[in-house]
Amino acid sequence: MKLFLYVGAVMLMCDAINGLFLPELGRGRQRISTRGLSWYQRGRRVERPTHRVIDPNEDCFLMTSDEGEIFFKSPSDEPVVCGIYMIADPDQRIQVTFNYLDVPCENGGLVAWVDGWELNGQVWPADAWDDDRVVESCDRRPPHKLVARQNAALIQYRVPARGKGFAITVRHLKNPRPCNVMMFGSEGIFTLRNHGATGNCSLITIAPASVRILDLNVGQAVKTHSLLDLETGTISQCKKRGLRDYVDIGGAGGLDHTKMEVYDSVCGLDSKEARRPLLIACEDTVVRLVSSGRFHNSVTLAFNPLAAEDIEHADLICGMDAMNEVPDI
Ligand SMILES: *[C@@H]1O[C@H](CO)[C@@H](O)[C@H](O)[C@H]1NC(C)=O
């Protein structure tokens, strides 16, 4: 029942996921006509097999959380852009090896490894993006293993040559220091940490969700281990108060979490699970840990699917920010 409600909510909220695009192709957006379907309808999740042949009619938008080999052989000369969206556990990284690649460069034939995800022209993680995240090839396979910096990566391909294609092996490696994390579905518990470093780490789930803070230690634990850690409780609106370490909780209308709408930015030391969950009715739910580098920050969060009946009284409904002002405490 829960799952049913969740899928319903996704269908309600996701009206904007309607295509893929390869930015480097120089021909503007290359869309697949997937408009009108929900993420989960379109993203068929691969079950178990460690050896899979892509069915061009079913799997143009393929989402997989499995390891194993994946083959693609083009059924036609049509320049269709498709994608293999790979996701692993939060504390893992995706590794892809091209076992062979036989894609003529003529007519725009191309296979691109993307260290991250791209949907509707938005990339994730946008604030950590650089040119190294995209490796394109045709004719010759990338000789090295390609390792993502996080638990989600993407192969985009366009093979306008019948019978041509490629084969990859997907592996999931351990990631001892996950920073940007994508959650599969919207159920789970995860701890975001900065490991004492400066910068932003974030967690995104491609669905509306309820978010509950189970444990908070942000802007408190000085690196030199003071024994005197006072429970401040959860402090609201920390960014407005001028603090440099805080956790933004909110949502976004696409994968680009730098454009997120923030419901609240919290900080403090709070080990009690006293807060009620925040209901975030956005296409994507985002939590961002912002760290000055002066503290060892961590925040443990529980995510749950947002029930359809919770949407109307959600704390944040994206695209309506004027109506969602948080009163100052
Ligand atoms: C981290 O997030 C804050 C928004 O709260 C933003 O102002 C800042 O530019 C981000 N830092 C980086 C390195 O992206």
Question: How is this structure best described in words?
Answer:
The two termini are 38 Å apart. It contains two helices and 24 strands. Mean pLDDT is 83; it is low at 1-42. The protein is elongated and about 65 Å long. The relative contact order is 0.16. The strands form four sheets. Strands 14, 15, 16, 17, 18, 19, 20, 21, 22, 23 and 24 form an eleven-stranded mixed β-sheet that branches. It has a six-stranded mixed β-sheet with strand order 1-3-5-12-7-10. The protein has two domains: 2-174, Spermadhesin, CUB domain (Jelly Rolls); 185-322, Sandwich (Jelly Rolls). Helices cover 5% and strands 41% of the residues. The longest helix is centred in the N-terminal third of the chain and has 12 residues, at 2-13. The chain has 329 residues and is mainly β. 2-acetamido-2-deoxy-beta-D-glucopyranose (NAG) is lined by residues 127, 199-200, 248, 290.
